[in-house]
Amino acid sequence: MCPETSKKAEEKTAETTTIQHLIETIKQLQGEVENLKQELRKARSIPSGKIGFAFAVPGILALVAAVLNNSTILAFIGLGLTFWGALFFFVRPVRYVHGSLIDSTALPTYKTIDRIIADFKYKGRSYYIPPYPKDVYLPEYLKGLKDPVVFISADTGGMPSLEELAKSKFLLANPNGICVAPPGLGILTQLEKELGKDTSKLQLTELCETLPPLVVENLRLAGELEMKFEENDVYLRIFDSVYKSLYAGEEKLKSVHLLGCPLASAIACVLAKASGKMVTIQRIDTSVDGRAVEVRYRMVESQT
Amino acid sequence: MNFPMTMADISLWLAVMAIILLITSELVSSASAYSGDVIIEKKRLRLAALALGVGFMVTVIARIFYPF
Fold this sequence. Notes:
The complex is a heterodimer.
Chain A: H1 3-44, H2 47-69, H3 72-90, H4 99-120, E1 126-129, E2 149-153, H5 162-166, E3 171-172, E4 177-180, H6 185-195, H7 204-218, E5 224-230, E6 233-239, H8 244-248, H9 254-259, H10 262-275, E7 278-286, E8 292-300
Antiparallel strand pairs in A: 1-2, 1-7, 2-4, 3-4, 5-6, 6-8, 7-8
Helix pairs in contact in A: 2-3, 6-10
Chain B: H1 7-30, H2 32-35, H3 42-65
Helix pairs in contact in B: 1-3
């Protein structure tokens, strides 16, 4: 056999293998699409609404029949069914979204910050700056001090002055760095809404007791949350967080380790507000399987 | 064509429903490890339970002033 023919045969075999592999991949993907469609169908149907109807309609009919026949038993049955039907409508599930959607929406923010840090060649730390309480009066030119911000320093230099912070600027010249809105700002607002008060009015020891159940049970952002307060350090352990994939993702985001995931960032904001001190993330460790995340915060006195 | 239930019947019904709902709402809101996946408005359930409890108490107070 001439070498040209054998080369062609080899190419043909390789092509056939590639096509077979592609067909297998397509079949696998089609299977995944079907599974996702089924999940979507399940999620879209609201069972409690249907159950509500199933209870309320016979209940009302039973009540009408009770009045027409003057029957106490039918009245009890009708009242019970109507009530439970109404209750099923009243306590129907709130709209839930898939957990993976939450971290994917946070991804662009971190990618943008990553680009900024890479572009400016910043090698410093992030400092969560405590904002002024909302109910404190400040003149118009100082209103910027009420916004929670995180300062990313260019190097290990000093802290920005109050004047610079009050201007709500993005790029700061002295010291070099940028001021951005913390990724956990939305969660911070939600936490304060659930607590029913400004976190700046809380003691740090109170936070260690109130925050974990709030995050785990009310907001359901993590499976477990442990918080320990040690002098100027705060140790946080988050288990099974909805944002766990941000730490272990293929993107290898630097900003996640600098600012923390939105949950870790929100807790840093809370700590800064409650202590009135700047909070910096010392280190973030993730477990091998990526389910547990340990964050160490340090509260530093501001030298502005 | 009168409604076939007396105030005493309604009072009894309110009491039974209030007890059922109060126990349910307590179990659902406190034992989070078991009830964490129950995706209903737990606050509303508690509200409904308390409303029924208050309704029953109203019928009891009404019974004191206007015995039925």
